[in-house]
Amino acid sequence: MNKLSIEEKIAAAGLKLSQGKKEILEILEKNAPISVPEILSSLKTKKISLNKTSIYRALSTLIKKKLVSEIDLGEGKKRYEASSKEDHHHHFLCNTCQHIYHIRLDEMLVSKIEKNIESKNKFSIENHKIEFYGKCGDCG
Amino acid sequence: MNKLSIEEKIAAAGLKLSQGKKEILEILEKNAPISVPEILSSLKTKKISLNKTSIYRALSTLIKKKLVSEIDLGEGKKRYEASSKEDHHHHFLCNTCQHIYHIRLDEMLVSKIEKNIESKNKFSIENHKIEFYGKCGDCG
DNA sequence: ACTTAATATGCAACTATGTTGCGTTTGCAA
DNA sequence: TTGCAAACGCAACATAGTTGCATATTAAGT
Ligand SMILES: [Mn+2]
Ligand SMILES: [Mn+2]
Ligand SMILES: [Zn+2]
Ligand SMILES: [Zn+2]
Questions:
Q1: Which of A8, A48, B22, B109 could tie A43 with a disulfide, CB 3.0–4.6 Å?
Q2: Which nucleotides of C are covered by protein (CB under 7 A)?
Q3: Residue B15 contacts A, CB cutoff 8 Å
Q4: Rounded distance, CA A88 to CA A79, Å?
């Protein structure tokens, strides 16, 4: 059903259709979460010139509109992935091949954990970040 | 029972008792997880001169010996906390006051989530990183 | 089509965290 | 006390990310 093109997604978000946002989204849609340096070299391969400053700025507006989400796996740099509005999920990073897998987990259990924390402390939890590390099937 | 002094902990780990390791551990023991820049200014306040390179190197050896653990809350820099050998726990970051709280959560539930993931995929999970964000009691 | 305002872009300079090489100093054990 | 490994300071470097400012592009409105 909801198969929007990149151009349509950008329009639907009320954003200007710039070369930057278009190319970046295109790259993000066919990759695992990637970093800005990786986006930069991917652009270079496609013979597209786009400044790193422009990339950071385009990503920033795309994130605000939830077309992109930012991931931090503790590598000292952020990663970005294309995101549709309702796809909250988590990641598994293979310590051997470094591949990043998207995983959807039982959010009921997560919610149970959060309730647990909230009852013991006086926190109100708005958000969580959960990642797993280990060995993937290819590397097992 | 196991109340070792900083000097004793360093000795027990088979490490040389250097000014750096001693002062750093002292600071870490009386603080929430802090970053290297913060350690640096904390040292300056105490009128102790220690180079940032030395701090990074001291932290690195302390981490290897599990006297310190490294935390990444996605702020673009690492944080460090004093750790005893068996205190695996997680953190809650208040989005308002930025305080970091240590939280111990029901690892049985976490384990259940992990089993779940492992059964659906062919991963073997070795490690996880779980953090919560929201509003703390003081800021509620 | 022509104008205009908002947004996007390039570039250079800058900030920040973290690392490396190397020469010197210090802790500690023989 | 002497010798070696570990620790240290310093400068230079690496990399991720930001800012200011001038110019270019986009999307409307005329
Ligand atoms: Mn993902
Ligand atoms: Mn902690
Ligand atoms: Zn793998
Ligand atoms: Zn708070």
A1: A48
A2: 7-13, 16-21, 26-28
A3: no
A4: 16
Q: Which residues, 6+ apart, have CB-to-CB distance to B2 below 8 Å?
A: B84
Q: Which residues contact A78 (CB under 8 A, 6 or more apart)?
A: A35, A36, A70, A71, A72, B74
Q: Do A133 and B132 touch (CB under 8 A)?
A: no
CA of B100 to the centre of ligand 4 (A): 8
Distance between CA atoms of residues B68 and A100, nearest Å: 27
* Rounded distance from Cα A43 to ligand 3 centre (Å): 26
Dig out the tokens for A102 from the structure: 């998207």
User: Could you give the domains of chain A?
Assistant: 1-85 (1.10.10.10), 88-140 (3.30.1490.190)
**How far is the C-alpha of A94 from the C-alpha of B60, rounded, in Å?**
23
Q: What is the pLDDT along chain B (140 residues), one digit of tens a residue?
A: 568 899 999 999 999 999 999 999 999 999 889 999 999 999 999 999 999 999 999 999 999 999 999 999 999 999 999 987 668 899 999 998 999 999 998 889 999 999 999 999 999 999 999 999 999 999 98
